[in-house]
Amino acid sequence: MKYTVNTYGWSMEALGKSLTDEQVQLIKEKMVEKGYDETSEIRFEVEDFMEFDHWDGDLFHVSKAIDNQTLHFEIEDENGQKVAEFGIEDISRPYDEDGNEKYEYEEFSAWPSEETLTNIWLTIDESKGGVFTYEIESEDVPKPEDFSYSFGCVSTPEGDWDYINNIYFKGQELEIVDFLDNTGKAATIEIFTLEDI
Q: Which of 173, 151, 138, 171 shows the shortest CA–CA distance to 4?
């Protein structure tokens, strides 16, 4: 039988962009000119004075459920009837025989470095409500122990943003088939530089 798995909780869309020294300086000058204290205040004005695409993350651009123990699952059968409901805390983290995490940890870095890029624009939009929809097939009604998940994080000089990277059903990675409706909660916009510009 086919089942639909809907997930609800907190989610984030994280985007990392590289900036030149000149771009950072121009943004800072415009912030002073307009009397802005926070980068978030100038977020949607940047493209007015320089070439800048808010949704093009040349370093990374990911949409993930936030790992804050709020994610929960609602499973519906082919008739749209809810047959199971449980939280992420009911799902065990998978380990191999040696006690290591079974799935690979994913990390995106927003730390500027001399080897890569010296300036990084980071945007993290947080939302609450629906997250993703998955579809699975199973002879039995899916149970929490049938599921597992992997982790990831966006690492920044101001702290890490931990997220749930992938959801697995009986060891098989699930593909997102839809994004559910949610409500925006908060936005974090930072510019990280290797040196004070």
A: 138
